[in-house]
Amino acid sequence: MYHMEALAPALAIGLGSLGPAIAIGLIGGRAMEAIGRNPEATAKIQTAMILSIAFAEAVAIYALVVALILKFV
To answer: Best label site of 1, 26, 34, 69, fewest CB within 10 Å?
Structure first.
């Protein structure tokens, strides 16, 4: 019984952080490609990249909150 209680938060944070991790990698890679193709637009690309990474990271934070709720409630 105890093992299942420990498994739920682990799965929540594990699976909940998988999508944002992939998204952040893709965002960073595409931003580097865009900067390589058009170095003059670095500031605009970097701003959009940081904003997109912040939104993707927010999903991981939501998964962390759900995992903590599952663990302590």
So the answer is: 1
Answer yes or no: pTM beyond 0.70. Answer: yes
Domains of the chain: 2-72 (1.20.20.10)
Residue partners of 9: CB distance under 8 A and separation at least 6? 67, 68, 70, 71
Give the pLDDT means over successive 10-residue stretches in the chain (73 positions).
82 93 96 97 96 95 94 89
CA gap 47, 42 in Å, rounded: 8
